[in-house]
Amino acid sequence: MSSRDEYKKRIEAGMEIDREVTETFIKALDPVGMESDKVRKITYTTDLGRTSHMCLECDEHIDVGHLYIRKTDTDVKEWSYCVECACKDLKGREEIGYKDTDFCIYVSEDVAGDRKYDYDLTPCVEHKVSLKIEVKEMTDREVEDYDEREGLEALFGDRPVREEEDTPDEELEIEAPPAPHIPTIMSKLKGSVDMPEEFKFADSTVFYTMLRNIFRGKSILVLGPSGCGKSSLGKILADITHKPYYAFNFGDTMNPAAKILGDTKYDSEKGTFFKKSRFVSALQDREGSFIMLDEVTRDRTGDLANILMPVLDGQKYLALDESDDADTVDINANAFFYATANIGREYLGAAHDLDRAWKDRFTGGIYELEYLPKGKEQELLMIRSPSLDEKDAERITDFASRVRDLYKAEEISTAVSTRMCLSTAEFVVDGMSLIDALKQVCLPFYPIVAGDDSERVQVIQTIQSMGD
Amino acid sequence: MVRRKGIKKDAYWHNIAKLGISSGFKPAQVGRLIKECFPETEINGRHIGAYKRRLTEEGQVEIPVRPTTTLQEMMSIVSGLVTDDDFFTYKCSIGSTKRSLKCFEYKLTAELQDKDNMENIEEWIEALK
Lengths: 468, 129
Known about the structure:
- The structure holds two protein chains of two kinds.
- Chain A is of the alpha/beta class.
- Chain A has helices at 3-13, 15-28, 31-37, 83-96, 109-113, 140-148, 151-156, 163-166, 170-173, 185-192, 204-216, 230-241, 256-260, 278-284, 303-312, 356-360, 374-384, 390-408, 418-429, 434-442, 455-464, and strands at 42-48, 53-54, 61-62, 67-73, 78-81, 101-107, 119-123, 129-133, 220-224, 245-249, 262-267, 271-276, 290-294, 317-319, 328-330, 336-342, 365-368.
- In chain A, a hairpin with an 8-residue loop joins strand 14 (317-319) and strand 15.
- Mean pLDDT of chain A is 72; it is low at 15-39, 114-138 and 146-170.
- Chain B is mainly α.
- Chain B has one domain.
- In chain B, 67% of the residues lie in helices and 0% in strands.
- Chain B is built from five helices and no strands.
- The chains are: A alpha/beta, B mainly alpha.
- Chain A binds chain B through residues 181, 183-185, 187-198, 211, 215, 236, 239-242, 383-387, 429, and chain B through 8-14, 84-86, 88-100, 103-104, 106-107, 110-111, 114.
């Protein structure tokens, strides 16, 4: 029997349908059953307005005696909807796939028993009952459509479609498929390379970023106060990457041009000749060298920056003299430049003096290193001087930390470096008292100036406060 | 048992392992392929087995019942799979491990060196006399 025939038969039967509906409704809302489910359940129930209601969605007034939908959940919350909005709400939940909703509208006993309103009931799946309102005589076409459709679509398919319903928020609900995972150099480094013990004081991102820069051949500039480990860090990175290591310290040179390019020499047999520098050999190393440019800001002539400009930027060449037909050295594409400079007001040519163009050449970034945190510094002292008493190590780092606080507060002009701490530890291990060792290592950095509040006095007071 | 959701890592040997696994080789055999390209690697069958489970769970590979090619043929193929960044990562991985080992070695030997230093100091003082 087709659903249409069943429908007609039931309509003719009149109250029989209502009775059946009433029974199933009561069964569905059985409070005992609901409790045993322990699931939050939302129920849509048709009712007649006994007082004036307002639709939660469209703010439309539902007058007394008119049909409206009561939405309830197991938390005994209750909302009123007009029939259209209730169906939209219901359909929306169904499409999203909520499991807490019974996807149908129940018809209450009094509504089902009252025939004066023009509504129609069509039994649906199992014990659930769907509601159809404003039933009119169906055409053959509509009957065919009705047979094919199910559920709410079948019930409300003939109502006028509003424009806003053509553009539902479905786009928001559609989850885009996850993008395919593409490994990158950084993800591979993070997944494969463990941070070495010596590097654990630093942020892991700095470590992996520096490795990435070495791979890409992007030069980096490391800034920091003297003795904080800038040069050591460079040596560690060179070791890790297995690159040939060439270090050039520009703090010890009077003539940067000779150090970078080379110099004229005299030989009794050959006469005067030009000897290329070790720097040139480093640039041409086939394996791609790790070139450490230490203390680049200590060159006061400005020659260093000018000569290195085309080396560090995309041009990648080095001209050996200034003539038009000068010999040039091509730089290996895998050569990597690691420059260090002091930062702080107490250093000659400190980094704030670096000009913009020079800084721009360090495309891998400019990193600012700080002194080690107290715990890590203590650990380092114990590693470097295993005979050092743990308490002495703690006092040395405590002293360094206090002096650094004074420096940050701009009460003194320079801080105590990690290198100074290591030096103090060595003195202590060799039998000097801690106070004497601190005085021996640190005081020369603080000049003798008249007055009680001189830097030297402050540091002496700090040393004495460490006890013996 | 609740399974902890870990961070999925990438590694320099994944390309080779993926090809080997999808060609039906066992983790130990895939390990040999990886050793062929990265001789000093510490990657073993257990690492590869874990990666195989990950690939299977994610549905990234369909594993044939039998290998689709010979191990010798595969060895000649995989060397072409090693990219510059894979090789660089491999070198860094080895370099970092060696550097850490050096650090531990230094810790272990520093105390012994201290004793030697004391003897040297005594000799030096004797010489001064």
